[in-house]
Specification:
The protein has about 130 residues and is of the alpha+beta class. About 30% of the residues lie in helices and about 35% in strands. Strand 4 and strand 5 form a beta hairpin. Helix 1 packs antiparallel against helix 2 and helix 2 crosses helix 4. The chain is globular and about 40 Å long.
């Protein structure tokens, strides 16, 4: 995919700090290049993504492949985070994580919160498919 998506935790309508140790545990085994906050991850199926890791957000850019989608899913699950897709929707790994997206955020954006447990479900959610 050629756009950016954002992995973050939300509290009171704002980004909250992520557990950096968890981010490293999930991404490090797949990291093939690193320059400060910027990484390139590659999955066994040849999927690849440019990733930027910050205290409150992990950004995936120029990504593709089922393995990368699975990696995103694991990251969401382990962090209890929300995947923000520009233009919507908000994607979460499990129903309980949907509460992070405040009602006013949903209403003002018009974006739904979609539960997507797994890489294939995330990809369908990003594409707006059920």
């Amino acid at each position: 995919m050629s756009f950016e998506v954002f992995v973050t935790r939300l509290a009171d309508g704002a980004a909250a700090p992520l557990d950096r140790a968890v981010v490293c545990e999930v991404l490090d085994p797949f990291t093939v290049a690193r320059d400060g906050e910027s990484l390139v991850v590659r999955t066994p199926d040849g999927g690849e993504a440019d990733v930027r890791v910050r205290a409150d957000c992990v950004t995936f850019h120029r990504f593709g492949g089922a393995g990368v989608m699975d990696l995103l899913s694991v990251l969401l699950d382990r962090l209890g985070a929300v995947l923000i897709v520009p233009g919507g929707p908000f994607l979460v790994h499990r129903e309980g994580d949907a509460a992070q997206v405040a009602t006013d955020m949903r209403e003002s954006s018009g974006w739904p919160v979609v539960v997507a447990p797994g890489g294939a479900a995330l990809e369908r959610g990003m594409r707006g498919a059920p």
